[in-house]
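Memo to structure team: turn this sequence into C-alpha cells by end of day. - J.P.
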Amino acid sequence: MRNILSIFWREYKSYFVSPIAYVVIGVFIFLVANRFVFRFNQFVQDTFMGISQAVQAGDAVPKYSINDSVIRYVFQQIRTVSLFLLPMITMRLLAEERKSGTVELLLTSPLTIVQLVLGKFLAGFGLFITMVVPTVAMHFFLFTYGNPDLGPIITSYAGILLFGAAVISVGLLISSLTENQIIAGALTFGAFLFLWIMGRIGDTTYTVWSKVANYLSITSHYNNFAMGVVDSRDVIFYVSFTFIGLFLTYQSIASLRWR
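Reply from structure team:
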C-alpha cells in the first residue's frame, strides 16, 4: 500500500509542476460554469414567464423542477466535458515513463506491476476529483436560493466518479501502448469520441445493434444516476469496465519484460 501511495503522490504532484493541471482544471470549470449560468438564467426566465401567464389566465401555477431543468443538465455537461479533457490527464501517465526509460527501472525494482498500475490510476483519478470538487459551489448556490432535491445530486456525483474511473482506465491503457504522449492523447481522444458516439447512436435508433451500442456506451449508463436512480447494472458496468481497463494495462506493462 505504501508503494501505491508513493507513486500516486509523486504522479499527482507532477501534474501541478507543469501547466497541465491548471489548464485542464481551468478549462473544465470555465466550460461547466458557463453552461450552469446559461441554464440557470434560462430556468429563471421560463419560470417567471410561466407563472405570469398562469396568473393572467387564472390557471393553476405550474411546478418547475430545478433538478430536471438545471442540475441534470449541468451534470450532463460535466460528463461530456470530462470525456474530452481527460486525455490530457492520462496521455502522460505511462507514455512518459516509457519514453524516458524509467519504466524499465520500475520493472526491475521491488515495485510490482499491480502497484505501478494502481498508483498511476489513482493519480489520474485524484486529479479528476480535483476537477469536479469546485462544481459543488454551483449546487451550494442553488441550495442558498432554492430548494433542490439532494438525492439526485448525490447519485449524479457517484455516477460521475464511476464514469471518470472507467474513462481513466481506458486512457491509462492507451498510454501504456506508446512512448509518445501526443499519440497517446490523440488515440485516447479518438477512443473517447467513439464511446460517446456509440451512446448517441443507441439513443437515436431502435435496432438490435442500437441496443448493443447503447449497452456498451460508457455515457448511456450515466443517465440513471443523473435521474437519481442507482441501478446495480450501471454500477457493475462501470466497475467491470474499470477493472478490464486496468487488467489490460497490467498485461501491456507485463509484456515489456519479454521484449
